[in-house]
């Protein structure tokens, strides 16, 4: 969890999934002010327990390791090749793990913090192959978006445990191979602006719709919400 200030009660502004790196900019007690990877480059505070701090050699070793991406909604890394064994860690869609050994229907994995365990092979894909095969197209975007119907809302959330509006669009696009910025106003600067038309006839499924406040009385226009268009009805 990434927060606006170095305190647990501070606003949740973002989440960083397992296996993703951040750049540490400064420290305040047991909190670190960090910046996420490009192109997001988001700033916020993460508590020490949520990080694994590498030296250069450790980071290079992790970077070179063969990796898998968790593609199911939720799951676990288990201590043994048995779903009844003690969990080592929970997992959410998009988490990245290092591969130690392929063991049949299980993969022996390495977590960024040094822990090891087993994950079921049918819940993961080779990260390299996934990146090559994933396709950003309208059908895939819509199908991914519909998979998350009924998932909980969480302000600042960017995982299947809970999304806010821009967290939802970010995850939908991420799981189709495209990294959107974190916030709705930032996302609005990408792509091509479309005049929706009088009856919204210019819109197509897969378009991002932005909502907010018009500029008035010297106040600038402000975008506060984003949604993914999935269906057009006459």
Features:
234 residues, alpha+beta, SH3 type barrels, endopeptidase fold (from Nostoc punctiforme), 3 domains, 5-stranded antiparallel sheet, 5 helices, 16 strands, 32% strand, thiol protease, hydrolase, cysteine-type peptidase activity, SH3_16
Summarize the structure.
This protein is an alpha+beta fold and 234 residues long. 17% of the residues lie in helices and 32% in strands.
Give structural notes.
- Residues 135-234 form the NlpC/P60 domain.
- It comes from Kryptobacter tengchongensis.
- With 234 residues, this protein is of the alpha+beta class.
- The protein folds into 3 domains: 2-51, no CATH class; 65-129, SH3 type barrels (Roll); 138-229, endopeptidase domain like (from Nostoc punctiforme) (endopeptidase fold (from Nostoc punctiforme), Alpha-Beta Complex).
- It has 5 helices and 16 strands.
- The strands form 6 sheets. It has a 5-stranded antiparallel beta sheet. Strands 3-4-5 form a 3-stranded antiparallel beta sheet, with no helix packed on it. It has a two-stranded antiparallel sheet with strand order 1-2.
- The model has no long low-confidence stretch (mean pLDDT 94).
Helices and strands in order, then pairings?
Blueprint: E1 2-3, E2 12-14, E3 22-28, E4 31-36, E5 43-47, H1 56-64, E6 67-70, E7 74-78, E8 87-92, E9 96-103, E10 106-110, E11 116-120, E12 124-126, H2 127-133, H3 138-147, E13 158-159, E14 162-163, H4 165-174, H5 184-187, E15 208-213, E16 222-228
Antiparallel strand pairs: 1-2, 3-4, 4-5, 6-9, 6-12, 7-8, 9-10, 10-11, 13-14, 15-16
